[in-house]
Request: fold
Amino acid sequence: MLDIIALLLCLHPETTMTTIRQFSLIALALLAMTGRVTMLAISRWTGDGGSYRTIQRFFATALPWASLFWIFFRTHLFCPADVYLLGGDETVVTKAGKHTHGLDRFFASLYGKPVSGLAFFTLSLISIQQRRSFPIAVEQVLRSAQEKAAAQAKRRARPSAATLKRKPGRPKGSTTKAKTAVELTPELCRIQRMVRELIERIGEVLPLTYLVLDGHFGNNAALQMAQQCNLQLISKLRADSALYLPYDGPYAGRGPRRIYGERINPRAIPECYLRQTSVDDAIETRTYQLHARHATFAQAVNVVLIVKTNLKTQAVAHVILFSSDLALPFDTLIDYYSKSTMVVKSCQKVYISHMSKPAMDKRNRYADT
Reply:
């Protein structure tokens, strides 16, 4: 336990020594205990000085967790020679009952459907050399009544197949809207605030270039949100996304210049864009890279298409990764996305399972900190 206290002494500028001693007892218990993590179970594994009332006091204390994460990382984990990415993802923890703070229905990818529980959004610094993720900001997802009502209204107003058919051409009375002037959703506003607070907190100690998010954020709004934070976005597009080659033909002589060329067929991409080919266990992998236009994006994006073909059955599948950084090489883009999604998800599951359950038993008091 003395070693744990020595590691936590760097947090003294932001908290008291009493809290640090309680934190060291709880950290030791979490590392040693088995079974379900509750405040009562933690108190049974802490020994002297870690009574149930002491554990309750700790989780009832409002702590500046974001500052504590950064101080601990900067003191013990930061390597100036390493390259760090900023990754973000949401984790859902199932929870029964009706009175837990922030309880709602969230989509859980493990279940493939919305479930009742708590959702936490985590920003992590991902080390490229160490292949490790360090949580640096965690915030509980709390949806307002207006946001819930808007989501329900959107589901009710979802058009049917009959209403989707309309006359060709531009609807009468529609106006041109700049694709860069997007209205961010409450979810993107929350993420943007977390990113800006983190960048302000770390200052010039650790310059960040890339923000890596999963396919849920593969859209123009998320790209504009990242660029407003002076970051380049790395994410994934839908497999059926409409991508077009940039138009390089002659000017028609009237009207605005064309920017969309031929539509890209992921199963028939010109060989000039092929960057790598490999065969492993009868699976052929072909990697293409090109600059492409998306119908809903404000600018061209750096697209990497990974096409896999089963040589025995001739079944074909593809994945579309993209970045707003047009100069990013294809192998680096794939490496950054794969490392970030793999490391962030594994780290979040461990982190949330250890930190959220005690708070859930007391209506999640720590979440507001």
Observations:
- The mean pLDDT is 84.
- Residues 215 and 236 are 4 Å apart (CA to CA).
- The first helix runs from residue 2 to 8.
- Residues 243-326 form one domain.
